[in-house]
Amino acid sequence: MTAESELIKLLLPSGLTEYFELTKVDQQDGVLNIYLRELNVVPQEYRQERLESKGFLPQISVQDFPIRGKKVYLHILRRRWLVLSSGQLISRDWKLVSKGARMTQEFGLFLKKIFG
């Protein structure tokens, strides 16, 4: 693991890099914008299904804790998939993810705040 990826893990909510990749960071007018895209990893509850990635849901923006006196906004793209057998569009169920054994409490609360 590179020093850069270790630093990113320290700055972002715990566990976030397991599900999202960092795509861009920019800074303007005292605001740090961090852009994240959900990885194309099939949700656990659909592992037995044939899925096809169908792009992303609309981007959401969430304010996170300040870093070095700068406001921080996470701009998050969540993935969606098509279940080929039923034609149903699905996305990861973050309530199920937050109940996972490997997740920190901080990340579970973060997901609950963002996705309900």
Write the topology of this structure.
Blueprint: H1 3-11, E1 20-28, E2 31-38, E3 51-56, E4 60-67, E5 70-77, E6 79-83, E7 88-90, H2 94-98, H3 105-115
Parallel strand pairs: 2-5
Antiparallel strand pairs: 1-2, 3-6, 4-5, 6-7
Spatial ordering of strands, largest sheet: 1-2-5-4
- Radius of gyration equals 15 Å
Please outline the major beta sheet.
Answer: 4 strands, mixed
- State which percent range the strand residues make up: 35-45%
* Count of spatially separate domains: 1
Which overall shape is indicated by the principal axes computed on the Cα atoms?
elongated
Q: What's the multimeric state? A: single chain
Order of helices and strands: HEEEEEEEHH
Span of the ends, CA to CA: 32 Å
Mean pLDDT: 82
Helix content: 10-25%
Helix-strand makeup class:
alpha+beta
State the helix count: 3
DSSP summary, beta strand count: 7
